[in-house]
């Protein structure tokens, strides 16, 4: 659902950045507006995504730093976390200042980031739509937009509903389930995999690879390699045996000139669609199970499912933090001096909670001004299918499991380790067991 996807490590080869005539003059040394926020060590970004209440962490950072905070991606690797709503829009809309091309990342070029770093599958450059700006980005973006436009939404909704119903039928006789591992993580995977012509077992392999990849830990690069191996096999098969699926459409799209570009288009669409939608489904169900106000509004009909889904995006967007932009020249943002080559992380969750634009806690029903899908030229192209899958999954669970309840305390919900995504490890629930169907064990 976001346009963030794995990036393979590449040899640094920084393109020349534009000169900066007319850019703000460098502030005098020691200027309070440009120094660190109180002299403390940078906060590890995973401290926020893994917190019980990340908004409190971001609010503390905002009190110390303002709208742009110094954080640490891994030991010794700094970044700027953009937490202001208006500042985030400025970054995403100014390609001439803030590039998606990681070859501009100074710390990577100078060797401060290890070639074995778990950050690289998500952040290092490769020749795909995510790493491009301007005309090249538009050329590579068109196949994604065309692929989404060719999806038959009525057929897709029926397929998603079938997946949801079958998954619930598998665990409903037990009277208990984990709504993440047995439902939310599987629904988008199987739904999106089927659009590309992958079967269920291939979809499960993709899921395991993506969990490792998004974790940005020691096994991240292994996950990235396995993820691509599965997609390369699928592309080779469709070149020999075309079918009515997105893989075949990508192979024949005139904007994609090489097999590498075709592979990267699949990487972007599948990786951004599965993990983000998993998180969106999980958060909506979690709020229903843990927040009486949210549940009452949803069950009482005063909050439509789409409004509920948007409230979940406001409160806990799937990509809490989205990598990355790279400064092409010295500039200023939110009162901070940004140097050429600095890396900036889009603090989606923090920007959604910016009191300058959203002073009330609940927000207006139907308000879709959140930044969960990012903004600017790189805004997520798959918002419609992501919402279709999430809405169908939540509706089906509400209909077939009307009395489900969380089997642990709300504060016991834990989170998958990642500086980027915020996905529950599990959501164990209990409910009235359904009769077993004939043939069920």
Describe the structure.
The structure is a single chain. The chain is an alpha+beta fold and 441 residues long. 45% of the residues lie in helices and 9% in strands. The chain contains 17 helices and eleven strands. It has helices spanning 46-49, 54-65, 85-93, 106-109, 120-123, 134-149, 153-171, 180-184, 186-195, 200-215, 220-240, 246-251, 259-290, 292-299, 305-315, 348-352, 383-400, and strands at 43-44, 68-74, 77-82, 98-99, 176-178, 322-327, 331-333, 336-338, 343-346, 405-406, 428-430. The strands form three sheets. The protein has a six-stranded mixed beta sheet. The protein has a three-stranded antiparallel beta sheet with strand order 5-11-10. Helix 9 runs antiparallel to helix 13 (259-290). The protein is globular and about 65 Å long.
Summarize the structure.
This protein has 441 residues and is an alpha+beta fold. It has 17 helices and eleven strands.
SSE arrangement:
Elements lengths: L42 E2 L1 H4 L4 H12 L2 E7 L2 E6 L2 H9 L4 E2 L6 H4 L10 H4 L10 H16 L3 H19 L4 E3 L1 H5 L1 H10 L4 H16 L4 H21 L5 H6 L7 H32 L1 H8 L5 H11 L6 E6 L3 E3 L2 E3 L4 E4 L1 H5 L30 H18 L4 E2 L21 E3 L11
Parallel strand pairs: 1-2, 3-9
Antiparallel strand pairs: 2-3, 4-6, 5-11, 6-9, 7-8, 10-11
Helix pairs in contact: 7-9, 7-17, 9-10, 9-13, 10-11, 11-13, 13-14, 13-15, 13-17
């Amino acid at each position: 659902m976001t346009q963030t996807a794995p990036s393979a490590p590449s040899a640094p080869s920084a393109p020349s950045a534009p000169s900066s005539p007319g850019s703000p003059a460098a502030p005098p040394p020691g200027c309070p507006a440009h120094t660190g926020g109180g002299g403390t060590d940078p906060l590890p970004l995973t401290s926020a995504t893994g917190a019980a209440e990340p908004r409190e962490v971001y609010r503390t950072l905002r009190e110390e730093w303002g709208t742009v905070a110094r954080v640490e991606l891994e030991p010794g690797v700094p970044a700027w976390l953009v937490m202001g709503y208006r500042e985030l829009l400025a970054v995403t809309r100014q390609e001439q200042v803030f590039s998606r091309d990681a070859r501009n990342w100074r710390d990577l070029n100078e060797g401060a980031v290890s070639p074995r770093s778990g950050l690289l599958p998500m952040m290092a450059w490769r020749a795909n739509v995510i790493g491009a700006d301007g005309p090249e980005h538009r050329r590579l973006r068109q196949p994604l937009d065309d692929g989404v436009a060719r999806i038959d939404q009525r057929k897709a909704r029926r397929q998603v509903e079938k997946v949801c119903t079958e998954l619930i039928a598998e665990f409903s006789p037990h009277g208990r389930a984990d709504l993440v591992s047995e439902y939310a993580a599987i629904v988008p995977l199987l739904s999106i995999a089927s659009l590309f012509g992958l079967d269920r077992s291939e979809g499960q392999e993709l899921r395991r690879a993506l969990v490792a990849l998004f974790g940005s830990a020691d096994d991240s690069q292994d996950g990235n390699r396995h993820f691509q191996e599965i997609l390369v096999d699928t592309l080779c098969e469709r070149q020999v045996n075309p079918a009515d699926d997105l893989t075949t459409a990508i192979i024949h799209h005139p904007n994609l000139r090489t097999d590498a570009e075709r592979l990267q288009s699949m990487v972007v669409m599948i990786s951004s669609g599965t993990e983000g939608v998993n998180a969106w489904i999980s958060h909506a169900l979690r709020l229903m199970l843990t927040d009486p106000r949210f549940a009452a509004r949803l069950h009482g009909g005063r909050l439509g499912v789409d409004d509920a889904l948007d409230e979940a995006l406001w409160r806990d967007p799937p990509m809490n933090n989205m990598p990355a932009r790279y400064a092409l020249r010295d500039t200023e943002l939110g009162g901070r001096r940004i140097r050429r080559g600095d890396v900036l992380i889009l603090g989606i969750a923090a920007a959604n909670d910016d009191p300058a634009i959203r002073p009330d806690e609940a927000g207006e029903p139907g308000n879709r001004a959140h930044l969960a899908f990012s903004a600017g030229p790189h805004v997520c192209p798959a918002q419609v299918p992501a919402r279709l899958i999430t809405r169908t999954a939540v509706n089906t669970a509400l209909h077939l499991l009307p009395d489900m309840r969380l089997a642990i305390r709300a504060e016991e919900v834990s989170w998958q380790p990642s500086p980027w995504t915020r996905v529950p490890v599990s959501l164990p629930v209990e409910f009235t067991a359904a009769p077993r169907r004939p043939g069920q064990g």
